[in-house]
Amino acid sequence: MIRRLATVVCARPRTVVVGWLVLFVLAAPFGLALNAHLKAGGFTDPRSSAGDAAAVLERAFHIPPHTLLVVLHTDAGQVTDFVPAARASAAGLADVTAVRDYGDDPALLSQDRRTTLLTVSVNASDTVAQNLAPTLSSAVSGAVHGAQVDVTGQPALDYALNVHSKKDVEHAEMIAFPVLFVVLLLVFRSVAAMLVPIGVAVVAITCTQGLAYGIAHVVDLQILFTNALSLIGLAVAVDYSLFIVKRFREELRRGGDVPAAVTTAMATAGHSVVFSGLAVMTALLALFVPRIMVFASIGLGGFMVTAVAMAASMTLLPAVLRLLGHRIDWGTVRLGGRAAIPTATAAAGTVPPPVPRLYRRPAIVLALAVAGMLALAWPMTALRLEVPVASASILPADDEARKGFDLVRANLQARDLFPVQVVLTSSGGAGGTARLVDAATRAAAVAAKTPTVGGVSSVASLGLRRDALITAIDSDRASLPVGARTALDQLWSTGAGETAVTQLVVTPTADPDSTATHDLVRRLRSELPAAAGSGVTVAVTGVTAQGVDFDHVVVRSMPVIIGLVAVATFLILLAAFGSWAVPVLALAFNGLVVTAGLGALVLICQHGLHQSVNSVTPVLLFAVMFGLSIDYMVIMMSRIKEFHSAGEPYSWAVLGGLGRTASMVNSAALVMVAVFAAFATAQISVVQQLGIGLALAVILDTVVIRRVILPAALLLAGPRVWRRPGAPTAPIAPDAPAVPIVPELAGTVPELAGLAGNARQVSS
């Protein structure tokens, strides 16, 4: 099929190229407008109990959907002098429904009176509230002179995440493209060959962005969509093109004509690209399992750009190669002598050199290498996750929204602003008020005795007798003192159908993103339903509870994600190679790479940079790296199978196939590392950690798995690796000939250097 497609493309190459150029021109303007239609947030589970409880509170107490926090700080004098002007400027903005300051709540002023907070209620959509953040900051800064003004809160944090996400993509691409120019020039030593993969990548990314513009009008896409699209798109598009271009040039050097070289390159390297792309796309589709916007957006972005890159590699790339022909070597750069490409077979009657020392005891080599990878993976057991919804640390330290949040944490105690909220609901009816009051009293008493709880506010803490409280709630609230009436309005609500809702406001002694507060949420959920009694439903919400629910979804989804990816990868590789052993080896190798990469990431982030690993990073690292590492497995095993099917001795097929693909895989790995390292410079911690983790995983995959573990495992397993399911195992001849080593492999393993000369003699 691929050979047939290549033949059709070669027959009309100009038509294919013009068609892709038209798509590129049409997609470019829409791609440039994509960012304006992406959504921030997406780090919560919309189906969680915390989300449902928060919706109950919003309806019962008419809580505005969004709140922005204006933080005022001064190092000289009292910050209270600036509050009137700040309040007036904030209240005058559209969509602002209320502004509260320290006069309404003394907790909004620090003890040294140098830091204060204004809460600005916004009744608008998510996008409008987020875009109001810079407007509010500008308005208050213009009205206040002599004080530091920082606007924070969830809408401001989301807005900042959007801005930095766009900057990170632009910054990473500014680094990645020049590096790719240099790397590909070193790989191909030809300007024309260097430009082809980059051109395919640009076309694939731009066309995908244009498609995403239309999709963003139908479904919500999170702002990290563009990061995933660029990061994965650059890696796969350049790698796929590199595989095909290198095979095309190899066929040309063998003396074949241009159409035959294109067809052969597509039937071999192109065949591998198809199965590699399917594996990547399958792994990324697994990110839809949690049904959380951030995962789904990243999965969709990677899936779409991989599909478009595959389509471009199967059509646009062969058309370009057909038109270029031998001009693919235009702009040749002389960087030293180029070794002639050796033949794949040994000359008849020659005696092959001995097997390299590294591979003479494959069982020992395999055991030591696997033990080393497992040792590197061990720090993963100390993995400490942090959910972005309860922390501003996802943003760079100099961002305004994070600076404001840090000021609140340092001076106003963020735990007071982000409490754990316990929602108790009763259906009402006869005795409904008394039942809910008693339930709230018992639950508040249990919560107050819980470790890490600093205080509990509830209807039981208003200082009223039980009978007076029930009477006030049912019929005589106006008789209460003003302070008690205001507090009761914030803690009790009776809605339609006499459904009553009350809340307990639990103030933890630790910050909202701490492990202690996460444990507190779990304990309250476990103990309070029994304390409340029958007839009353209990739910826990707040930003920390949302983070706990997010973690729960991640943990619950991981076995399903791993299972789906493993089964799909097994079936894809089984279809590609017709062998059950190859998929099993691939799954084992990929598991080693992902766990070792995550362990190395823990060492760098937690011990080196002293930061927690973002909760989304392990899932993304698994899905992205599991798919991408299949590239190397497919391209190497395809060449080994090609040699083995041609009748070569098994050991020669293994080491010869690995040697023939060594420079190709090393080059592809260098490209991926360059791309991922560029994204490791991102200011958003999720993207930064993903870039670091993927770069480390690719290095481990290339250096340890493909150069040491893979050949040792294949030599140890013997020809049974190619046994089809249900087929009998052929006996291994005890006098199997020794193996000649091709020069490419000699450059990748030090032990082979001394054998390169003999290998050339054998190959000639």
Low-confidence runs of at least 5 consecutive residues: 337-353, 728-764
Count of strand segments:
11
Mean pLDDT level: 84
Structural class: alpha+beta
Structure description:
Helix content is 62%, strand content 8%. It has 26 helices and 11 strands. The strands form 3 sheets. Strands 6, 7, 8, 9 and 10 form a 5-stranded antiparallel beta sheet that branches. Strands 2-3-1-4 form a 4-stranded antiparallel beta sheet, sandwiched between helices. Strand 8 and strand 9 form a beta hairpin. Helix 2 crosses helix 7. The two termini are 35 Å apart. The C terminus is likely disordered.
Short description:
With 764 residues, the chain is of the alpha+beta class.
Considering the chains and any ligands shown, give keywords for the structure.
alpha+beta; 5-stranded antiparallel sheet
How is the topology of this model organized?
Blueprint: H1 2-11, H2 13-32, H3 49-61, E1 66-73, H4 83-91, E2 96-100, E3 115-122, H5 126-143, E4 148-152, H6 154-188, H7 191-215, H8 224-253, H9 258-285, H10 293-314, H11 316-324, H12 362-377, E5 385-386, H13 400-411, H14 414-417, E6 420-426, H15 432-448, E7 453-457, H16 466-474, H17 482-491, E8 492-494, E9 500-508, H18 515-532, E10 536-541, H19 543-577, H20 581-608, E11 613-614, H21 617-628, H22 630-645, H23 650-679, H24 685-717, H25 743-746, H26 756-763
Parallel strand pairs: 5-11
Antiparallel strand pairs: 1-3, 1-4, 2-3, 6-9, 6-10, 7-9, 8-9
